[in-house]
Amino acid sequence: MSLKTVVRQQSQTPAQQLQLQQQRDIENGLYPNIPAERRSPPPRPQRQDTIDMEEIPLNRSTSQPEPEDRRRMRDIFNHHDADRDGRINTHELKQLISNGYCQDIPAYIADQILKRADDDNSGALDFEEFYQMSLRQQLMFRNLLALYCRAVVPPPTPRGDEPDGAYERQMSVCPPPLTMVIFSIIEIIMFLVDVIHFQDDPDHNQRLGESTNGPAATLFIYNPYKRYEAWRFGSYMFVHVGIMHLMMNLIIQIFLGIALELVHHWWRVALVYLAGVLAGSMGTSLTSPRIFLAGASGGVYALITAHIATIIMNYSEMEYAIIQLLAFLIFCFTDLGTSIYRHLTDQHDQIGYVAHLSGAIAGLLVGIGVLRNLQVRRWERILWWISVIFYFALMTTGIIVHIFVPDYFPKPEYN
Asked: Which portions of the chain have biased composition (kind: Low complexity) (predicted)?
């Protein structure tokens, strides 16, 4: 530094010296806390300083045009970002899908699509998440989602009945539907125990499995004179009188039970079935206190009306729901009419129709209460509460009568 430069610095004011020092710092690459408009651009790095930077992905220059697919996705994104917040929420995604000729997609499906693509769990999609979703789900964005929506939700039919199919798509074989199969196997084993027991008895050769004096029947049948053995209110379902009685119950309960179990899983179907069995014995005991009871008809009728319950609660999500509902209603009323006719015309008719009716009522009420409802509506919540309260009121009343009004029933036999 020359003498002339030193003299010049000494003649400057402190403010001028500070400004001169800041200018030197800027030239040397140091950036003090000064306004951005007073800063000079940093010196351009030499080639040797950028060798390692080649491995770092750099943002594309704004002057370089976007690829065609990305530009198209940005146009779709901007068009359906109704509130212009730079994000697509569930409502906007549903509108986007609806514009792809999928007019009736349920809101929960749009919500599931959004959740799968929402990488940062913010509840909405920014453009990058939206674009990555388009890359993963190319079928979804082909022709503005038309093909994807048709695969997810069938298009409406011109006849007015709009099959949705969301209910049927809930079917799963994991876990396998074995509940009714297991119950059926136990019923077959109990039947065979009695058949084998009487195989050498000439008095029973012509009436295969019709005796109620076998070891299984004696232990499990509902006996009104042994009501203190409380297990009989449920175990009578393992006892069947005759091969036709057994076969009819097995066919119906396996056919209907597996169809329910594929959607609602084993424990719900088991609850419905057992509720029907218990209601059957309870209703029979209250209306006909001296009637013996055998067979799983209470549980079978519970499965029948459980199908009606799930149609009611999932009507909008089912394919051809009206046809299914009519089929079950016709079956129920036909069987009820036939039962009444046989009861009035055949004095030897010993079928416990009260158990059928009680099981059917229990299946409807418990089915509404425990079976899956894919899209809960306000009136369905009200119906759920009515069904649950009504079922527990009926069962509680029956239990109270059995405990506190013993004189209504036949005197117990303890032999």
From this structure: 9-23
